[in-house]
Amino acid sequence: FMGEMIVLGWVLLELTNSPFMVGIGMAVRMVPFLLFGILAGAIADRVNRRKLMLGLGLALAGVTGILSVIIISDMLAFWHLLISSFIIGSLWTFYQTSRQSFAYDIVGPKHVVSAFAFISLGMRVGAIVGSLSIGFFLDQIGTAICYIVIMASYIISSLILTLAHPQMEMVPREEISVWQNIVEFRREAGRNPNLLALVMLTAAVEILGFSHLVLLPSLARDTLNVGSDGLGVINAVRALGGIIAVLVLSSFGDQSRKGLSLMIVLLLFGGGLVLLGNVSTFWLALAAVMIISGMATLSDVFSQSMMQTVVPNALRGRAMGAWVFAVGTAPLGQLQIGWLASALGVSFALSTNGVGLVVLAVGCFALLPRLRRL
């Protein structure tokens, strides 16, 4: 996942020389989250989640393999990246929804925060390897080899998945259609204010906070002058920040005040973006990235675990579908921050979004007491 994001951002920047076009490419990758998030949740509540994930992992390997062939044939064009980004984003929509629900199947409600924390830990450990290796391959060997490595990673992860066995019932006993699943979830969202608030908050954080990923290639190449190797290091440090945050969170066990913790995390997230927008050295940029990635990781862990616990057991897959749907608003943030960076500079764009995230955290604390007490 991390290697693929690095390759996509770097190749788009090299092809177009525009942060805004990088934003468009990454936005296309996230649009399926918005389009298919709820549908993915409904399907995850009706089918065998592990089998679904196995099929999706192999499909992801197939798409990245085709991309490598196109690049080796020297036929790569901008539209190839857009189409493949949309297909990969669609597959990831269903994969991520099923994965989060499957984790709950394995550990149950008592350990859900720790489960999501350790999933994040695994992702970050893999991201360190992926970031450094893909950054090296981009600089020394080329894009085609990068996609071959990513294809192999998808295949290996699918094989590992066969070892996982759930302790809880994976799907509801009653046989209802996917459409009925969606209707049932819409009713739940209408009568569950905590669920609705979490969906809206997740969307706002995605737009203001996670959109900074669009600017990392420009930050590495144009502001810090460290090239693709430096971009790999930046993303490796991002992963390290997430690992540290997960380990700290896990040492405290399950949190009783997840809502308040989430708001504190968002406050620090915004402060880190402001710092990154005003750094003058590569080392200071790495420190800012570590803070940002740690808070981003905790934001995901808290929002996902809270969303799983505020709905009935039969709706957990759809709850994760709602989370993925909220993440699907990312294109709004990616286009916004890409346009700001192109028009007014990377520093202004990062600082503006950071301030917006701080305002969001303060506003949630003041206006959403029910969420704060979760």
Set down the secondary structure blueprint.
Blueprint: H1 2-16, H2 19-44, H3 49-72, H4 78-107, H5 112-140, H6 143-161, H7 178-191, H8 193-208, H9 216-223, H10 227-251, H11 258-276, H12 282-309, H13 316-327, H14 330-344, H15 346-367, H16 369-372
Helix pairs in contact: 1-2, 1-5, 1-6, 2-4, 2-7, 2-13, 2-14, 3-4, 3-6, 4-5, 4-13, 5-10, 5-12, 8-12, 8-13, 8-14, 8-15, 9-10, 10-12, 11-12, 11-15, 12-13, 14-15
Tell me what you see in this structure:
This protein is an all-alpha fold and 374 residues long. The protein contains 16 helices and no strands. The two termini are 31 Å apart.
Say how many strands there are: 0
Query: What is the arithmetic mean of pLDDT?
Result: 82
Query: Which class best fits the helix and strand makeup?
Result: mainly alpha
Helix residue percentage: over 70%
Shape type: globular
